[in-house]
Amino acid sequence: MKVIIDNAIPYIKGILEPYAEVVYLAGNAFTAEDVKDADALIIRTRTRCSAELLEASSVKLIATATIGFDHIDLDYCHKKGIEVVTAAGCNAAGVLQWVAAALAMLAERDGWQPSQKTLGIVGVGNVGSLVEQYARNWGFGILRCDPPREQREGGDFFSLEEVVSKADIITFHTPLDATTYHLINEELISKTHPNAVIINASRGEVADTQALLNAPQTLLLDVWEREPAIDKNLLRKALVTTPHIAGYSAQGKANASAAVVRAVAERFSLPLTEWYPEQVQPTKRRPIDWQSMCESIRSYCDLTEESLRLKSGVEDFEALRNNYNYREEYF
Fold it and tell me: What's the domain count of the chain?
């Protein structure tokens, strides 16, 4: 059995070696030659799993240590009988705390309390639901937009146009697919209040870069089109600029690594289905009031410092991301 693993995935080295031949490669360096005799691939977003990569391979499982799957040709994998497993929900608390740091920064800058603001949440899945839960408890008015959930469940959801026209702050937590590509575009921005705030911690291609460059709204961005070759003008314009690390908590990464190991273990009957990195302490969810969060969040997630780091070295985007010092989740 052979497994090829993205060498930037933490905590995983040495875990599968007793049971398989394991090869570690840079995520953007996987080739058809590399994977031709592999049984499983353990990847991140930097590995594009397409027919070009997989056609001549014996791959049976692709496990991605990410919540998204837009880097994988699911139709092709389905036709070829290749199982695809994601780490859905692994980094929800990490992204929540990045968003919390963003909200605390805005409140300090502009002098408001949550009860004075309406937060629009676009995409209310694992991440968006957690953001909603904490934001409601902090006192924000909430407008939710999630057409798939609305169709399945009904309930208190609003159209995207209603959310962007009424919310003071709009945070995007959607997957990237045909329906969300360039969801944030010139038309949508024209319907958004010019004094509103747009937060994108989902996928870079959810937003049209040119539309963001022309937008009068305040921008807080963790994700970018064409990463790692991001637009320098947009980098200069945005208030918060981080290198796709919103979910980069120690616990989020541990959850993701555990998820992909579990996927391989279940598929190939290995005794690793309960494995979790011993060097990471799982977080227990707990409530935290707004004032306590604002007073403490910067010591865990300093968006001012992280933004300056990227702004002063945009060419280091990939290095900043790969060498990021994972934050500790604390609520």
Answer: 2
